[in-house]
Amino acid sequence: MKKFLAAAAIFVALATPAAAQPTSRGFTGVWAIQTQDYSNSQGREFRALSGTMIISRNGRSYSADLVAHTMGAYPGEWPTTARETCTARTSGNRISITCAIVSHNSENGYDPDNFELTLDGDEMRGQLIYGGQTGALFTRVR
Description:
mainly beta, 8-stranded antiparallel β-barrel, Lipocalin, two-stranded antiparallel ribbon, 1 helix, single chain
């Protein structure tokens, strides 16, 4: 009977989907980003920012690479893509991410994207900070 119970416990553990198990990966990984609509520091309106961030741990600190996409709020505007490098500070389950522009394709300039987030499993929720702020959701991709 003990062998049967042990085998059943192993079967249940293996059959449980990985998404249902808590993650201990912390902040590192590949994250999909989605924000609410916002205006930049010059008052120019944008549709939501979306993109991908890869966060890596370097000893006690974190670094990240961000590719951000925004679409102007007016018909006929071209989308903007920005590439940014970032540093991050953590405290418990909170992370502050500060970015610097590497390149962008906007004719009107582009402000760096900074984030204040709280980690909860495979999601981080908080704010995009850019001279104002708007809601941001990061979802772990891997």
